[in-house]
Design a protein that fits this description.
Blueprint (H helix, E strand, L loop, with lengths): L3 H18 L4 H8 L3 H8 L7 H11 L3 H4 L17 E5 L5 E8 L5 E8 L4 E4 L7 E8 L1 E6 L2 E6 L3 E5 L4 E4 L6 E8 L5
Length: about 190
């Protein structure tokens, strides 16, 4: 697992670089991302460990995948991400987690995740930009996928896809851990 200080420094460097490349002031990026100006300042100075929701909103606001926003390595033509370099971005004391495995930018941000949800746990996601889509393959257990308040049972071996520009969440109402692979595609910024 990468050192959290390295991840914080990479996030700080990349947010500041991307904000400046796009010509956004601190206030403009804060408004686009729906976070406070103070939060952007703290992130750019590596003085905070922002929530996954905040990181997602900033990535969406600058039109880049979370993988590239948190990237702390050079990006060759073929990028290999060993298991110990995947970035755990969400976890609970009960053992649930979401780990960003890899991402790319062409044609827009595309991310690949590994998730484990322990029995009785879940995670609700903010809406992604219009045109976003998610693919989920349940590898073990059963996922309760919630999209716009409607629940869908997704058993092991089943793949679900949906437009992710609406509120959605992942929950485990079963008695065993639910494990899934999740891909998120976000359109490029306009």
């Amino acid at each position: 697992m990468p050192d959290l200080e390295i991840v914080a420094q990479s996030l700080a460097r990349n947010v500041k670089r991307l904000r400046q490349e796009r010509g956004y002031s601190l206030d403009a990026l804060a408004a686009r991302a729906g976070v406070s100006r103070g939060m952007i300042i703290q992130i750019e100075q590596a003085r905070t460990n922002p929530s996954i929701g905040t990181v997602v909103r900033i990535a969406d606001a600058v039109g880049i995948s979370i993988a590239n926003l948190l990237d702390y390595a050079d990006s060759p033509q073929v990028r290999l991400v060993p298991a110990d370099r995947a970035v755990p971005l969400w976890s609970t004391p009960g053992g649930s987690y979401g780990t960003l495995q890899a991402g790319t930018e062409a044609p827009g941000p595309l991310e690949l995740w590994s998730w484990r949800l322990m029995p009785g746990e879940g995670h609700d996601s903010d809406s992604h930009p219009p045109g976003s889509a998610e693919l989920i393959r349940v590898d073990a257990g059963e996922l309760t996928l919630v999209v716009e308040g409607q629940e869908y049972r997704v058993p092991a071996g089943t793949t679900a896809s949906f437009d992710a520009h609406v509120p959605h969440g992942y929950h485990n109402a079963g008695a065993v851990p639910a494990e899934m692979t999740l891909a998120i595609a976000v359109p490029p910024p306009r």
